[in-house]
């Protein structure tokens, strides 16, 4: 499911500049969230009050931390509390689902930009030259690669790298496999197991060959292999996802039956089964991880449906695994989906569905609760007309 980054700043390809000790300083800037280097940077330490820090961060002034590392973490928590305060006056009328979704996305973007204004210095070996800083070198290098020179990144970016490092170590349990999948940094973890269960239970049209389009962690390829499919070709574009899928299939002892190839959507040839779990929401991702959630212009979904018939054997099936959350949010209608299926020369031969089991579906305080409560995830079985 993971898609590559296309826009914005990534890795070490820009400079951040600031004034310190009476002179101009600079360092490489790292942002996997695609944020450009802040135009205004001041040096801050343990004396910085949280209210002042929040005002500066909201106004776009970055704080390069020179104090104690644990105090930086406390300040970030204080900034998050301030960013999460509810407005004093609620809207006059409940917004439409699409408007509520757009409002939430805008609020999340403002919150992310604000919290990303707390910056940390890193040495060339990815260590942090601050008092009480933990050893984060391995987490940073696994996530971002070796730097080779000092750089600056936000504390939020570091927390993402540390969280990914822990997920990669312990893995995500996948009941349909009876095993754990180990996601890499920037590759979406299969924490919503209901879509995996659909693939584990749908009737196989053949056990000879399957294509898994946009394999991400490799979880669906692994499920198909465990179901007895003799050969699977799994495609991806992003180098991180390719490495992640190869690692997981090797861990599971399935590398000899699953070929992981770099491709945009389909590999060459035809198969009796082609599976795709594209991003479920049309929209612009704001980070590498969101590429598995948001599909600009429904490019992957439409590309899969338009090309599927040409990559299916005559009696084959394409399995489209897709949530209808976009429909409940007013972002894509069922009629549009059916029209894209028809335009691809396809017909629906079956469909299975399941309700989500994640906690947000039952959270009545979620601004998108009505849409999440109505959501269904479906496996559409498609065949050439």
Report on the structure:
The chain is of the alpha/beta class. The chain has 2 domains: 12-166, no CATH class; 171-384, Rossmann fold (3-Layer(aba) Sandwich). The protein is built from 12 helices and 15 strands. The strands form 3 sheets. It has a 7-stranded mixed sheet with strand order 11-10-9-12-13-15-14, with helices on both faces. It has a 6-stranded mixed sheet with strand order 1-2-6-5-4-3. A two-stranded antiparallel ribbon has the order 7-8. Helix 8 (239-251) links the parallel strand 10 (232-236) and strand 11 (258-262). Helix 1 packs across helix 2 and helix 4 packs across helix 5. 39% of the residues are buried. Residues 1-10 have low confidence and may be disordered.
Quick structural gist:
With 385 residues, the protein is α/β, with parallel strands linked by helices.
How is this fold's topology laid out?
Blueprint: E1 12-20, E2 23-30, E3 40-44, H1 50-58, E4 61-65, H2 69-83, H3 97-115, E5 118-122, H4 137-144, E6 151-154, H5 155-170, E7 172-174, E8 179-181, H6 194-201, E9 210-213, H7 219-226, E10 232-236, H8 239-251, E11 258-262, E12 271-276, H9 299-307, E13 312-323, H10 325-328, H11 334-343, E14 346-354, H12 369-374, E15 377-384
Parallel strand pairs: 2-6, 3-4, 4-5, 9-10, 9-12, 10-11, 12-13
Antiparallel strand pairs: 1-2, 5-6, 7-8, 13-15, 14-15
């Amino acid at each position: 499911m993971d898609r590559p980054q296309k826009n914005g700043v990534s890795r070490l390809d820009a400079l951040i500049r600031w004034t310190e000790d009476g002179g101009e300083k600079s360092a490489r800037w790292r942002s996997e969230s695609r944020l450009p280097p802040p135009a205004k940077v001041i040096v801050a330490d343990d004396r910085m009050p949280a209210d002042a820090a929040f005002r500066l961060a909201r106004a776009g002034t970055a704080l390069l931390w020179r104090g104690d590392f644990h105090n930086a973490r406390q300040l970030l928590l204080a900034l998050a509390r301030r960013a999460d305060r509810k407005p004093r006056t609620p809207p006059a009328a409940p917004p439409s689902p699409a408007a509520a979704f757009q409002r939430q996305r805008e609020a999340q973007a403002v919150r992310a930009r604000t919290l990303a204004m707390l910056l940390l210095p890193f040495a060339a070996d990815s260590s942090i030259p601050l008092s009480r800083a933990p050893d984060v070198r391995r987490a940073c290098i696994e996530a971002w690669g070796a730097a080779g020179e000092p750089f600056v990144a936000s504390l939020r970016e570091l927390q993402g790298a540390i969280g990914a490092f822990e997920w990669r170590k312990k893995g995500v349990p996948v009941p349909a496999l009876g095993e754990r999948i180990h996601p890499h940094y920037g590759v979406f973890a299969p924490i919503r197991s209901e879509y995996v269960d659909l693939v584990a239970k749908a009737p196989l049209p053949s056990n000879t060959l399957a294509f898994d389009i946009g394999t991400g962690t490799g979880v669906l390829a692994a499920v198909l292999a465990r179901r007895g499919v003799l050969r699977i070709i799994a495609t991806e574009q992003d180098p991180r996802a390719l490495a992640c899928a190869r690692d997981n299939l090797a861990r599971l002892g399935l590398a000899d039956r699953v070929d992981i190839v770099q491709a945009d959507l389909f590999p060459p040839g035809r198969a009796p089964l082609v599976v795709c779990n594209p991003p479920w929401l049309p929209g612009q991702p704001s980070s590498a991880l969101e590429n598995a959630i948001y599909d600009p212009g429904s490019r992957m979904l439409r590309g899969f449906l338009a090309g599927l018939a040409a990559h299916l054997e005559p009696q084959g099936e394409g399995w489209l695994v897709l949530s209808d959350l976009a429909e409940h949010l007013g972002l894509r209608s069922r009629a549009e989906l059916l029209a894209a299926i028809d335009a691809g020369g396809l017909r629906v031969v079956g469909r299975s569905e399941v309700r989500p089991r994640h906690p947000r579906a039952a959270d009545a305080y979620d601004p998108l609760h009505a849409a999440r409560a109505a959501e269904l995830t479906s496996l559409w079985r498609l065949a050439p007309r």
